[in-house]
Design brief:
0% strand, single chain, mainly alpha
């Protein structure tokens, strides 16, 4: 799957966790993460606010068309997002909130505003709709994101044990400890860390 390979290159951490999901859920996770990656990389492609706004609006329009029942746009990520919306508990309003979060971060040039906790929550709903982690994952999500950006984290959260069902969506949070020690963890170290999280439930 081309999107799967692209995500592995663009966001390997989440991709690693998704390997432990069942087939349909894994595909839905990849669709969600590929959508997020398209939004995250706007800052890498353009710096002009107007051009950024155009790109974010394109995704809003694509989601609106899906909500109206129109065929997906001729874009591979829109196509898999349409499938994901049909069979998961997520809806277009959920994804619109992700667009809003990335656009705010882009406009304010502050990656700490990226919707990390929302992404984690939506991913958890894909693999375990009945498990409600509430605010427990918010600090972990922001700490993970900050750590892999190379930012120091004040008062890091302790190791947390999560329900087994949500680990395919959140096992990569364990990498926060690895990033705190190494700016660029080795691929094998990352894989072993995610595996340990899946086996132990501790992230």
């Amino acid at each position: 799957m081309n999107i799967d390979r692209r995500l592995r290159t663009g966001d390997e951490d989440r991709w690693l966790s998704s390997r432990y999901a069942q087939s349909e859920a894994r595909n839905d996770l990849i669709a969600l993460y590929a959508f997020c990656w398209e939004l995250a990389r706007v800052r890498l492609i353009v710096t002009e606010p107007t051009l950024g706004a155009i790109r974010f609006q394109w995704w809003r329009d694509a989601l609106t068309e899906l909500e109206e029942g129109r065929p997906p746009r001729a874009h591979d990520v829109v196509s898999v997002v349409a499938v994901m919306l049909d069979r998961s508990t997520l809806n277009t309003a959920d994804l619109m909130s992700i667009v809003d979060g990335y656009e705010t971060a882009f406009e304010q040039k502050d990656r700490a505003l990226e919707p990390e906790a929302a992404i984690a929550g939506f991913a958890s709903r894909i693999v375990a709709p009945s498990v409600d982690l509430g605010a427990d994952i918010e600090k972990l999500a922001h700490e993970f994101a900050a750590a892999r950006r190379g930012e120091a984290v004040a008062s890091p959260a302790p190791i947390v044990r999560l329900p087994t069902a949500v680990l395919p969506a959140l096992a990569h949070f364990r990498l926060r400890k690895l990033y705190a020690r190494e700016v660029s963890p080795r691929p094998l170290s990352k894989r072993l860390s995610v595996l340990r999280a899946v086996l132990s439930g501790k992230v």
